[in-house]
Design a protein that fits this description.
Layout lengths: L1 H7 L3 H39 L6 E4 L4 E7 L3 E7 L2 E6 L3 E6 L5
Antiparallel strand pairs: 1-2, 1-5, 2-3, 3-4
Length: 103
């Protein structure tokens, strides 16, 4: 009841604060449930792409498994079968399956 009396008294700064609290709470929850985990995942993906080296076994976003034969700035050369090498964008590598196993 005390809050209602203050609101009726015309204290506009308190009214503004009380009206803004739910919005601020929603923004905080959205940040901790959506934005922060997405930033962490993006940072981990960039670290993985930066640490690619020859001999790593990787999986591409297209579902192709291969062994890295060479790495350039934006390109990775993969050996996917005997005498079959392909050139893919570094960003197409979705994960390292196990490191250091050469075919």
């Amino acid at each position: 009841m005390h809050t209602i009396a203050l609101l009726q008294a015309g204290n506009s700064s308190l009214t503004l604060l009380i009206n803004a609290l739910p919005i601020l709470a929603i923004v905080a929850v959205f940040y901790f449930l959506v934005i922060a985990p997405a930033n962490k995942q993006r940072r981990q993906q960039q670290e993985m792409l930066g640490s690619l080296k020859k001999g790593d076994r990787v999986l591409t976003s297209g579902g192709i498994y291969g062994t890295i034969q060479g790495v350039e700035a934006d390109v990775v050369y993969l050996k996917i079968a005997e005498n079959v090498k392909i050139k893919v964008a570094r960003s197409a590598v979705s994960g390292v399956t196990n490191t250091g196993d050469a075919e």
